Structures are given as C-alpha cells and as structure tokens.
Prior knowledge:
By secondary structure, the protein is an alpha+beta fold. The chain has a single domain (about 10-220), classed as Cathepsin B, Chain A (Alpha-Beta Complex). About 25% of the residues lie in helices and about 25% in strands. It contains 8 helices and 10 strands. Strands 1, 2, 3, 4, 5, 6, 7, 8, 9 and 10 form a 10-stranded antiparallel beta sheet that branches. Helix 2 runs parallel beside helix 5. Residues about 1-5 and about 70-75 have low confidence and may be disordered.
Amino acid sequence: MPSTTTSYDTLLKPYDASTGEGIRKAQLMGVEHYRQGSHDGLCVYYSCAMLLGTLWPSNFNGAVFGAGDRRQKKGFMTNDPLLESISESPEKALADWFFRGQYLKDAAPWIRKALRKRLTGIGQESYPRFTCKQKNKPRISDNSGDPALLEIATSILNGCPVVMAYDAPDLGCHGVLVVGYEIGDEPWLILNDPGETHATRLNWMTLRQQQHSRLELLLANDQPGLPSHLLRPDLMFALPNADELVRWRWWAKNNKARYYPLDQLCNGIKGLHCDN
C-alpha cells in the first residue's frame, strides 16, 4: 500500500487516461437514500435532501423532508429545511415540485439558504457554497476525458456526493445523487436514485450522447476542499494497479482531518467502531 503520509494528496486523484494513473473505481458508503413517489416530480428535491442528510446528519436527518403538519386549521406548517428556504409558500412550492419537477439551477439557492439557517454556531466561511454547473454535450470521444466526469470523480474522492439532473430520451428527465464511479472500458456512475430502492448504475457515455439539454451538476464551489471539520461518508476505492477495494474513513488525527485507511485507524485508536 502506498504511504498515506507522503502520498495522500496525489493518491486520491481521479483516473487520468493520459498517464494511466489515478483511482478508477470509488464509492461513498452509508449515503442517505430517500425515495420519491412513483408519479411525482420530486426527484431533484429528494436528491438534494440526500446530500444534506449525508454531510450534515446532526442538522438535517431529524428534519421531515417533504412533509408538514396538516393538523393546523390554516396554512401548511412544516419544518422541512428545503421548503423553509423558499420565499413562496411551502404548500405552493411543494405542489409545483410535485407536478412539474424542478431545475437544479433553481434548487441551488435553496440549498445555500438551508445551510445558512441550519448550520448555526459556525462562521459562514466554515461551510461550502453549492453552485449548479451546466455542462454541454462534449465534443470528445475519450471515455475518461470528459471534464464533467472529472469534476464528479474529484468530488466523490473528496467525500462529497454530487446531485445531477439530466434530460435524455431513453433515460427520462430525472434528478439523482451520484455516490460513486467506475472507469473501465466505459465509465459508469453509481447512483442513489430516489426512484429506486437500492443503488443503481448509469452508463456515462450513453447519458452524454443522449442528453437533450445541458447536464446539471450541484458542486461545492471550493472543490476539492470542503471544510475539513465536516463529516464525510466512508470511501471505498481500488488502489492503482489493484483490484481489491479498500475502505478509508474521514478522521481528525494529529490536528488534521482527512481520509485514513480504516485498518490503520482501528489499530491506532481505541474504541473506534471498525465494522465494514
């Protein structure tokens, strides 16, 4: 195994076809998976909720996403952190999302407002600003040379899932949470799809070739540097020139938070829960 003290910054890099180096396969583990209804347009909404519930579980997992207290005689009372961030009435906003869906570019400001409201007690510089980036269909044919794929892979290796929205004839108009990737003969994305009960795979080249409009990605502005004190999911990946997957955990050690090999942490930290 490469030295984790001297090669960490260069080890966790996405695969580069020009050099043959980098991580070909990686997946974030234990990511929240919320499900939408079978005939509603709330896929972007639940994908954003999964992102918030994964990176800030103590602030968002107790929230009731998509539900309100309908026992009130008047109005629509809710503690939903996304709906609370909308300037219009929560009832109208949820109805619009339910029937018409939502563009990711319009959801990004709601994410930022939800973070400012829920992450109390820390400075504004201590949490990331999420921005929607729109990607045109690429003009290149190299499976691993797409800049959009590189941004997704970089975010995954940094411990941050990516909300993605697309419109493609055979794939539909949909929003999902990307939790991993594989780059082999063809690139694949590993998804938490709010329309499915378990993680699914999506062929990247098929998506890019079929997309009608711009691909939308919700990414932190400061990639690859989310604030180090925030939680990250465990990271499973294959080391270069190896098939076996290893599991790393985000941990504060020697006054620095980063990913460490789980077996190394288990051997050195008493009481650390190390079940895979």
